[in-house]
Amino acid sequence: MTEGIGAVSAVVVSFNSAEVLPGCLASIPEAVPLVVVDNASGDGSADFAARLAPRARVLRPERNLGFGRAANLGFAEVTTPFGILLNADVRCRLGMFEALLEAAQRYPDAGMLAPCSWTPDGALQFGRPGLFELRGGAAPAMPSGDCCASYVGGSAMFFRMDAFRAVGGFDDDLFLYFEDDDLCFRLRQAGYSLVHVQGAALDHAAGRSSAPSPRLEWWKHWHMAWSALHVERKHRGGARATAHGLGLAVELAARLAFRPFHPSRDKWSARLAGTLAFLRGVRAVDRPPERAA
């Protein structure tokens, strides 16, 4: 390895992440430059970050920018050749940064690399199909070594910064969800490979980046519906996205009408609202920040 871990900067986006942020920040080696972007948390996350990681540059936007916009703000501060975006609910294992840098040198065409992400029950998060790939097929085989894939990342995305900037970073129109799918798609279109690195690992307490609440869950599903249609329009065309959205709206309205006591009713309601907002031309980033996840 010709470069030390100071060649990579870490960016962490927090939103009401006080419960998990200390573990995340403590797992990032001191030699790694660190930027924390706090999305107007109400639980003191920004103060936690400043106190627990004094070396960190803590950015405090006045409002919740959404995940991708906040990440772009953090990466604008990065001057190292590599950068990694970490969810607040991950803990980096020993040697992860070194392994990712070594892999980046082995695979110079890789624009993005990702470590093995392990859930609390010992499962490897690998092989989720990309947004436009066939769902419902056989699950992909777990890798026995490094491998290229059409989608990598999610909880941790390690970028060659030249590649990240060449494709324009994250889509500022996405508030939450599918930022990684969209970026993976654009990196591949630009000729970069995406590499899953077997020798690098972290632990991911999936879904715990923000303190849970019924309102937060509702807005997460709202954005999941809106963002999926936005990315489809962007890469597959407006007519296809509109037709898909209309079909989803009819399906979700029927579920709500004929299954009024189903436990997934709130999820369906949120996704219907997000779908209808997309069809009306509402921009997700224009939702009131205090109401959005």
Characteristic key phrases:
single chain, alpha/beta, 293 residues, nine-stranded mixed β-sheet, globular
Describe this structure in words.
By secondary structure, the chain is of the alpha/beta class. It is 38% helix and 17% strand. It has helices at 21-26, 45-52, 67-75, 96-106, 161-166, 179-189, 214-236, 238-258, 265-279; strands spanning 8-14, 34-38, 57-59, 82-86, 90-92, 110-118, 147-148, 156-160, 193-204. Strands 1, 2, 3, 4, 5, 6, 7, 8 and 9 form a nine-stranded mixed beta sheet that branches. Strand 2 (34-38), helix 2 (45-52) and strand 3 form a beta-alpha-beta unit. Helix 7 crosses helix 9 and helix 8 (238-258) runs antiparallel to helix 9. It is globular and about 60 Å long. The chain starts with 7 loop residues before the first strand and ends in a 14-residue tail after the last helix. Mean pLDDT is 90; it is low at 289-293.
Radius of gyration: 19 Å
Low-confidence stretches: 289-293
In DSSP terms, counting alpha (H) and pi (I) runs of 4 or more, how many helices? 9
Based on secondary structure, the structural category is alpha/beta
Estimate the mean pLDDT confidence. 90
| Distance between the ends | 40 Å
